[in-house]
Amino acid sequence: MGLSRRGLFGLGAAGAAAVGAGVVGANTLLHDAPAAHATSTSDPYPFYGEHQAGIVTPAQDRLHFVAFDVITDKRAELAELLQEWTAAAARLTQGKEAGSFGAVGGAPEAAPDDTGEALGLPASGLTLTVGFGPSLFDDRYGLADRRPAPLADLPKFPGEQLVREISGGDLCVQACAHDPQVAVHAIRNLARIGFGKVSVRWSQLGFGRTSSTSRAQATPRNLLGFKDGTDNLKLEDADLLRDQLWASPQDSSAWMAGGTYLVTRKIRMEIETWDRTSLAEQEQIFGRDKGEGAPLGARAEFDPIDFAAKGPSGEPYIKDDAHVRLAHPSSNGDAHLLRRGYNYVDGSDGLGRLDAGLFFIAYQRDPRKQFVPVQMRLARHDALNEYIKHISSGLFACPPGVRDAGDYWGRTLFEA
């Protein structure tokens, strides 16, 4: 489990010192399965493992998501950055400071190794998850022939109004935690470490998770007031996770085995218009009742959905353009997504309307077979489209987890 000579060289002075000093023991960072749990909202999740944390990890309450453009033209510097980020992430996720000297332990005349705003705060369940965008596989770094087939550019969906400045990116980092200051601190320090090699392209703060990724969690609500993600993949669904979430060597790129693919969409909601819509129409649009989250025609949230069930008028309880019908796996070739979205409010638009909605996050084995057909169906037919618009989009390949202190994010890509 020791640090390899190659890994020691790549981590740089700060990262190597952190591991060598033993401030974060490898044994405390290791998990044997993605279902590893923290015992409270203050405790850490393990960092090392077969898969990256922050995917099937029980969804935390807060999000800070950032996409970066890589500005160095040197492949070695990009690989070195990922090694330095990994060393910092191993510390941060355990409630430690980003560098070995921390915020106050270094020379007074030098910039600190940590920005300091999380001093005294616990780990708060922090997870950091990294991904590589399609643009990273251009001609700059000799990676074009290693672009995995599932990382195909998303098509243009009907009705979307994407803003280029808040879409795409060469790299992404998803920070989830129960304390927003812990999540922001982690992203701030990774951006600081990356100075001169990456620049922030766009970022998004989120609160109020909109999906449950474990059956121990209650289903949360989106800003339209409905329970969201009732039928989400859960970390307890081992067979479905194997088939629908984790990439395998047969998926065209051996370096992605144990990884997954991430799609993000920023979806602005017309909150004020929705708030003037009748309860009956709101429920028909979703195909669920607003109180319990039950499918229309049923009683409880997790009752099986009967799309053939008809009401007293002889019409189906769940209409053809209802969101739940169009998004359901039975309507999409049994395609499942692991959703991990968050609500957002970015102030107002200057006209007295909330700039608010859903920051949609979904992990899957192959977006071409999962997200794309589902979203195309929704974009063409969903009654909810009257109240929402997609303004941002991202697609990223999330590599497998970091196995031990000699490993780093993306090693399988750069050393394949």
Automatic annotation (TrEMBL):
One of its GO terms (cellular component) is cell envelope. Coiled coil: none annotated. Binds 1 heme b (iron(II)-protoporphyrin IX) group non-covalently per subunit. Residues 52-207 form the Dyp-type peroxidase N-terminal domain. Its main location: other. It comes from the Bacteria. It catalyses: heme b + 2 H(+) = protoporphyrin IX + Fe(2+). InterPro entries: Dimeric_a/b-barrel, Dyp_perox_C, Dyp_perox_N, Dyp_peroxidase, EfeB/EfeN, TAT_signal. It is an enzyme of class 1 (oxidoreductase). Its cofactor is heme b. GO terms for biological process: iron import into cell. SUPFAM superfamilies: Dimeric alpha+beta barrel (SSF54909). GO terms for molecular function: ferrochelatase activity; heme binding; metal ion binding; peroxidase activity. The keyword Ligase does not apply. Its EC number is 1.11.1.-. Keywords: Heme, Iron, Lyase, Metal-binding, Oxidoreductase, Peroxidase, Signal. It is found in: Cell envelope. Residues 219-402 form the Dyp-type peroxidase C-terminal domain. Belongs to the DyP-type peroxidase family. PANTHER family: DEFERROCHELATASE, DEFERROCHELATASE/PEROXIDASE. Involved in the recovery of exogenous heme iron. Extracts iron from heme while preserving the protoporphyrin ring intact. This is Deferrochelatase.
